[in-house]
Amino acid sequence: MLRVENICKTFFAGTINEKKALQGLSLHLKPGDFVTVIGGNGAGKSTLMNSIAGVFPIDSGKIIIDGNDITKTPEHKRAKYIGRVFQDPMMGTAAGMMIEENLAIAARRGKTPGLKWGLDSDNQTWFSELLQELDLGLENRMTAKVGLLSGGQRQALTLLMATLIKPKLLLLDEHTAALDPKTAAKVLALTERIVNRDHLTTLMITHNMRDALRCGNRLIMLHNGRVIIDVEGEEKSRLTIPDLLKMFEQASGDMLDSDRLLLS
Amino acid sequence: MIDLLMPTIAQGLLWAIMALGVYITYRVLDIADLTVEGSFPLGAAVAASLLAGGYSPWLAFGAAMLAGMLAGVATGLLHTKLKIPALLAGILTMIALYSVNLRVMGKANLSLLRVDTVFSIMRDIGGFSNAQAVLCVGIVSSLLIGGLIYWFFGTEIGAAIRATGFNPQMIRAQGVDTNFTIILGLLISNALVALSGALVAQNNGFADVGMGTGTIVIGLASVIIGEVLFGTRSFKNCIISVVLGSIVYRLVIAAVLQMGMPPNDLKLFTAILVAFALSLPLIKSKLGLRKAVK
């Protein structure tokens, strides 16, 4: 479904701040793969996500989704294939617009907007049902502006928007990191429910090792812009945090430097 | 008093078209677009030149709007394709338009005194008084433009433009090219500003290359006065507020002139008014804080 081949990305090349974020990273996701991504600070997790989403061009390598080479496709055109949820709950929705307006925009993801009226009354029941499934009472607040919602509510809405039209690939960039633990757990449970229900091919960055081990069928760990650990299925489900740390030390010859990863 | 009231309201309505243009950039797109300082006289210059050449007011309006669209696109391209900050892109177009406007008119000032304008035609054919003609045109054009804006920003494209103003990252992730929506927003805004310029020139009886000075400030004053006095509950509410704000602004100006303020101080007064209005949220929160402490 997703084929990332040998991609490189260097920021501030040729300056004192030069940062080689991705150094020949390759990754191949089968349809329906739910992959959790972990790694220390500066391992290249977010750069990988943003490269796939097309936020910036990559220096070399290839990105192919469902047989389409999108390496040079601009960000907005990749939206046809990709649903995204960001770390910042404010990023995924338009605060000054109503819940139903945000959903209506998401229902047109990847299509060129036309001169039809933006709110389609046929969609209202569909939206209302989907909101009901979130169990946040949003179905009664369809005309409320999104800016009035809490971070957790906004993130749940963003998740709904990213998956409203089934994406070929769902990118979750630490989408629970900015939420309080209780809300984070709720949003994560919702994520699993939607991903499993629709068999979405998913790439989820997390800073929480427990979540990374518990969720999905496959786990990869990045280090210095490469994949250094890649486990799936049976092997992954038997893995524990100490196992993972040992594997990391063996694979990288280094100690894990991220407090956030270890403490959470 | 009544003699003064009607033309002042009428004037407010003609300028309201410009204020709606400023609303689209300043509030919807979240860009302070200085192009309007050039596109307002551009609309006046294009319309005046055509009218002086004996062409119909309809053609003059159409050409003025087209010219305004081009000005908006110029700023849009500078901003999106060449990555020049929006404020600076607007200033560049504004300065360029000064020369363009001189070229369009051939001189700095073009009189429309013995020329058929939309108002003189209504006077001659419809038997309106001048003030009635201006009021009529003002009401019809405000309703028409206000209605069109409401419709357009409710469509799929319009929603995409609004979302661009709120969160460009989000709307790109939903598959919309934000360069396109920004350029389109600037195009619509400056078309309206130019149309307003064409109307005001015909009302004034001349087009002048300097008549654009302060356009952005008058536009902002109208937007903010309207929002403060008449609310921002919904998009429809906002549009009506801006039109009413433009009228109130003209009434305030007429009132202070009536009270004896020298006309030369008008721009200073407007600037202070806008500075005060823009700082209202801060003043309000400070006052609210003090109340809360008590």
From TrEMBL, chain A:
The keyword Membrane applies. GO terms for molecular function: ATP binding; ATP hydrolysis activity. Pfam families: ABC_tran. One of its GO terms (cellular component) is plasma membrane. It is found in: Cell membrane. InterPro entries: AAA+_ATPase, ABC_transporter-like_ATP-bd, ABC_transporter-like_CS, ABC_transporter_ATP-bind, P-loop_NTPase. Residues 2-249 form the ABC transporter domain. Keywords: ATP-binding, Cell membrane, Membrane, Nucleotide-binding, Transport. This is ABC transporter ATP-binding protein. It comes from Phascolarctobacterium faecium.
TrEMBL record, chain B:
InterPro entries: ABC_transp_permease. The keyword Membrane applies. GO terms for cellular component: plasma membrane. It holds the Pfam family BPD_transp_2. Keywords: Cell membrane, Membrane, Transmembrane, Transmembrane helix. Its main location: membrane. It is a multi-pass membrane protein. It is found in: Cell membrane. The chain crosses the membrane at residues 12-29, 58-78, 85-104, 131-153, 180-201, 213-231, 238-260, 266-283. GO terms for molecular function: transmembrane transporter activity. This is ABC transporter permease.
